[in-house]
Specification:
Helix content is 51%, strand content 19%. With 338 residues, the protein is an alpha+beta fold. The chain has 2 domains: 189 residues, no CATH class; 98 residues, Lipocalin, CATH 2.40.128. Strands 1-2-3-4-5-6-7-8 form an 8-stranded antiparallel barrel. Helix 3 packs across helix 8, helix 6 packs across helix 7 and helix 7 runs antiparallel to helix 8. The longest helix has 30 residues. The radius of gyration is 30 Å and the shape is elongated. The chain starts with a helix and ends with a strand.
Length: 338
């Protein structure tokens, strides 16, 4: 096993220096070829070794050293890029774009690049794990830290479609392989019986009740809140709407920052009106059965309610009603989600 991993690492350190996209079958084949070549070299060495296997043992240690130093090299490279602010440096066109217009990878880059402290902390963890795996005494600690950091990196790359999934996954697999070498020690450390509590027979029924309450109560509370806020359903009016026409509402919100041209109906009985760069909060009460709605408390202040009925036709919405006895009307077009 270590010879195949060493072959993969030697090929990977060369391939990763080529500044081209690597999430393709060609890169998978090249890395796989390196692993196969390393495994074959290990088999040849084992067959030709002298009785006693000292040469194979030394070669195996050397192979693991290659893996450790390869990981250290790559983690320092990526970690230092974060520490000096080079990997996620701000790209202002992304920061000035609407979230809905950003590709998932662009959104991830804008998020990580928005604050230096977050990315620098992640970079320091990567560098620290690299230093630790360079020494045999601290290899396990460094591999555990590295695996934790890389798991987050791999998940971000997969679910935000960042085009460096292959190498991040390879780094994680190599870090896990270093941890797997110490499986007996880890099993004994983490799975040995707890020493806490009095000796003797424990009240199993009481313990079962305690575990159930500790796990189920917060889960039930969260599920209750999720149901209340409509997380599991999409309401008919939920989304962002462009205001095409409005009448009877010219004095509802101040026009000085700019005209209000968007309405957002959110989960949880509230929404926003976009006024220039501002978002004015309001409360909603919508009855789908009768197609009626009430909008109130604009900007958090008590105000006259907008009470009326709505007609939803595919991506268009017509609202009409009264405000303090005076009629109003709105014609809206859904922007997203469609």
């Amino acid at each position: 096993m270590p010879f195949g991993l060493a072959g993969l690492a030697l090929v990977g350190v060369v391939l990763d220096q080529i500044d081209v996209p690597h999430d393709n079958w060609l890169s998978v084949g090249v890395l796989g070829g390196g692993a196969v070549a390393g495994a074959i070299a290990g088999l040849v060495l084992a067959r030709g070794d002298l009785p006693g296997g000292d040469g194979v043992t030394r070669a195996r240690h050397a192979a693991w050293t290659v893996v450790r130093f390869f990981l250290a090299f790559e983690m320092v490279r990526y970690g230092m890029a974060k520490v000096i602010g080079m990997q996620f440096y701000p790209q202002y066109w992304r920061l000035d774009s609407r979230t809905v217009d950003l590709k998932p990878s662009w959104l991830a880059w804008a998020f990580f690049g928005r604050t230096y402290g977050y990315q620098a902390f992640g970079g320091l963890l990567e560098v620290a794990s690299a230093v630790l795996v360079c020494f045999r005494r601290t290899t396990l600690l460094g591999a555990c830290l590295m695996a934790a950091v890389l798991t987050d990196v791999v998940l971000v790359n997969i679910f935000y479609d960042v085009p460096v999934k292959l190498f991040a996954s390879v780094y994680l697999a190599l870090a896990v392989s270093l941890i797997a070498r110490e499986a007996p020690r880890l099993r004994a450390f983490f799975l040995q019986p707890s020493r806490e509590g009095p000796k003797g027979v424990r009240p199993r029924a009481l313990r079962a009740v305690g575990i159930t309450l500790v796990l189920m109560l917060p889960a039930a509370d969260t599920l209750r809140d999720a149901y209340r806020y409509g997380i599991f359903r999409t309401e008919p009016l939920e989304g962002a709407w462009r205001v095409d026409r409005r009448s009877g509402l010219d004095d509802l919100l101040p026009e000085t920052p700019g005209p209000w041209d968007r309405i957002y109906f959110e989960k949880g009985d509230f929404g926003f009106v976009r006024v220039g760069r501002e978002r004015v909060h309001f409360a909603t009460r919508i009855d789908d059965a009768t197609s009626t709605l009430t909008l109130s408390r604009f900007g958090g202040e008590q105000s006259l309610n907008l009470e009326g009925s709505f007609a939803l036709h595919d991506q268009s919405l017509h609202v009409e009603g009264n405000r303090g006895g005076k009629p109003f009307a709105l014609d809206l077009t859904r922007e997203f989600p469609r």
